[in-house]
Amino acid sequence: MNFVLAVFAIIFLQTAQGEIDNAIIGDPSVECGDDFFEVKFDTRTTFHGIAFVQNHLDNPDCRTFARKDESAKNSSLRLTFDQCAIEKRHSVSVC
């Protein structure tokens, strides 16, 4: 049983010189629980951004900031199904 979830991450990256070319490496991983899911992703360079649910940036429960660790190249966003207008759907994978 898989959960079909739509989560959009937007990364804002800036330095004094301008934008940094950073990208997600590989596929993000999704961990599903009975009442939550977590999206984890790795980036090419140190992550200095925000991951959030589309249209819910103003809600602190629907976003995550980069870690204070200056060398972190990964981040995650963990949400419960009662947050951020998340819809839980059951589906069957066909391989």
TrEMBL record:
Signal peptide: 1-18
Alphabetized UniProt keyword annotations: Cuticle, Signal
Keyword match Nucleus: no
Domain ZP span(s) in chain numbering: 31-95
Superkingdom to which the source organism belongs: Eukaryota
MF (Gene Ontology): structural constituent of cuticle
UniProt name for this protein: ZP domain-containing protein
Organism of provenance: Caenorhabditis briggsae
